[in-house]
């Protein structure tokens, strides 16, 4: 019988707060998480994990020794911070100028370390192996790709994986989870518009790429509204536009970048063609030329049915049935999706919000903070997921 870890996880409250505050004071940017990785490695080693450092540059992998043969269940946590100057004024605020855990990866790391501790205490009851993955560079969509290339899903082969992300709109003590799509696929577009520069007072002698770019931006909004089924979520956003050197000069070129978000793989597959038709056709109609570069960055986060069922059971044991929240999927992206392409997995949102204490600010805000009462919940749910998954998969093998 799988033990219920609710009391053990609650007992870790102060311990986990201390870990999180230390990490929060010392944030590190993507692929620069040297101190963070060292702290993680030392902690795992003290618990009896076989630790590998320097994976995908600054990643850390821990395998719990002394476990029985059986399926390998993985936990993944991202560890990098953001180039944001913290304005919370908290006693544990960032001590690194211009760098902050403004997306709460210190929370994710802490929860995974807490889960590692709980699992180490129960290694004799595990019906399989535990692999804990601490991933660098999630913020630049690079860490998961490098970890997978390095082979972290093998030796031993991972059979199921779990991960979490804090969510300030979900009250602390609750966890948001759903089967299927949770977060969107992420793609990047770059558009180069070429015309013929000249004097701004003589537009008839030139080919204006600024006007063409404006028309392209407007027409791109018809890609979703007139091509995608209205019941299918999709977003096309132009985020940057650069061109020109003076108010009275028509430039030769304009450069734009943007993002495309989808859930349905069939819609994602068609999106590049739809965009290319609009970009090139609009430019041509105005006598200019445009080139579209389309990069497929991340697939959508799609929660596996069995993994989600296991995670829901884990949440009910740690937070109670009333602690389960059914979320509205987000058009934000997450590179945990790359692991889910290879291995059945579930990703859920850990509530960290507390409106009474003013903990309401969104990810990436310089005022972002969390209610630390969520830490034992996150740690307990992750550890409980591993215990339940190992038992279920071992029974099915």
Gyration radius, to the nearest Å? 24 Å
Q: What ranges have pLDDT less than 50 throughout 5 or more consecutive residues?
A: none
Separate helix tally? 10
- What structural class do you assign from the helix and strand content? alpha/beta
For the secondary structure, the number of strands is 16
What proportion of the residues form beta strands (DSSP E)? Answer: 25-35%
> What is the distance, rounded to the nearest whole angstrom, between the alpha carbons of the first and last residues?
17 Å
**Mean pLDDT across all amino acids:** 97
Describe the structure.
The chain is of the alpha/beta class. The protein has 10 helices and 16 strands. Strand 3, helix 4 and strand 4 form a beta-alpha-beta unit. The chain starts with 5 loop residues before the first helix and ends with a helix. The model has no long low-confidence stretch (mean pLDDT 97).
What's the SSE blueprint?
Blueprint: H1 6-10, H2 13-25, H3 34-46, E1 49-55, E2 59-64, E3 72-78, H4 105-121, E4 129-135, H5 143-150, E5 160-171, E6 175-176, E7 180-183, E8 185-194, E9 198-199, H6 209-227, E10 234-243, E11 249-250, E12 253-262, H7 265-285, E13 289-298, E14 301-303, H8 305-319, E15 324-325, H9 336-342, E16 345-353, H10 374-396
Parallel strand pairs: 3-4, 3-5, 5-16, 6-15
Antiparallel strand pairs: 1-2, 2-4, 6-16, 7-14, 8-12, 8-13, 9-11, 10-12
Helix pairs in contact: 2-4, 4-10, 6-7, 8-10
């Amino acid at each position: 019988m799988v033990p219920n870890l609710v009391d053990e996880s609650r007992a870790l409250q102060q311990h986990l707060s201390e870990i999180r505050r230390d990490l929060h004071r010392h944030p590190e940017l993507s692929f620069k998480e040297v101190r963070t990785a060292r702290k993680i490695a030392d902690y795992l080693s003290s618990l009896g994990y076989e630790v590998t450092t320097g994976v995908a540059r600054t990643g850390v992998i821990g395998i719990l020794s002394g476990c029985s043969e059986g399926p390998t269940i993985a936990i993944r946590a991202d560890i990098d911070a953001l180039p944001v100057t913290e304005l919370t004024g908290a006693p544990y605020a960032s001590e690194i100028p211009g760098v902050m855990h403004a997306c709460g990866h210190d929370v994710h790391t802490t929860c995974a370390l807490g889960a590692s501790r709980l699992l180490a205490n129960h290694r004799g009851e595990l019906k399989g192996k535990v692999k804990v993955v601490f991933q660098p560079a999630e913020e630049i969509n690079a860490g998961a790709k490098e970890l997978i290339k390095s082979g972290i899903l093998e030796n031993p082969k991972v059979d199921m994986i779990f991960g979490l992300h804090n969510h300030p709109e979900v009250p602390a003590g609750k966890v948001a989870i759903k089967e299927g799509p949770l977060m969107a696929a992420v793609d990047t577009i770059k558009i180069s518009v070429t015309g013929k520069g000249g004097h701004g007072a003589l537009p008839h002698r030139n080919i204006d790429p600024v006007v063409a770019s404006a028309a392209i931006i407007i027409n791109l909004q018809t890609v979703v509204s007139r091509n995608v089924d209205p019941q299918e979520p999709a977003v096309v956003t132009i985020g940057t536009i650069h061109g020109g050197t003076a108010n009275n000069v028509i430039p030769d070129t304009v450069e734009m970048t943007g993002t495309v978000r989808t859930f349905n793989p069939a819609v994602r597959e068609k999106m590049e063609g739809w965009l290319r038709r609009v970009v090139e056709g609009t430019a041509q109609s105005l006598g200019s030329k445009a080139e579209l570069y389309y990069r497929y960055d991340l697939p959508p986060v799609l929660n596996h049915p069995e993994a989600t069922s296991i995670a829901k059971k884990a949440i009910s044991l740690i937070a109670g049935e009333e602690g389960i929240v059914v979320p509205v999927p987000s058009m934000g992206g997450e590179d945990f999706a790359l692991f889910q392409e290879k291995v059945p997995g579930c990703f859920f949102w850990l509530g960290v919000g507390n409106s009474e204490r003013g903990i309401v600010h969104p990810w990436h805000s310089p005022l972002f903070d969390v209610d630390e009462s969520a830490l034992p919940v996150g740690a307990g749910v992750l550890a409980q997921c591993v215990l339940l998954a190992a038992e279920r998969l071992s029974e099915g093998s």
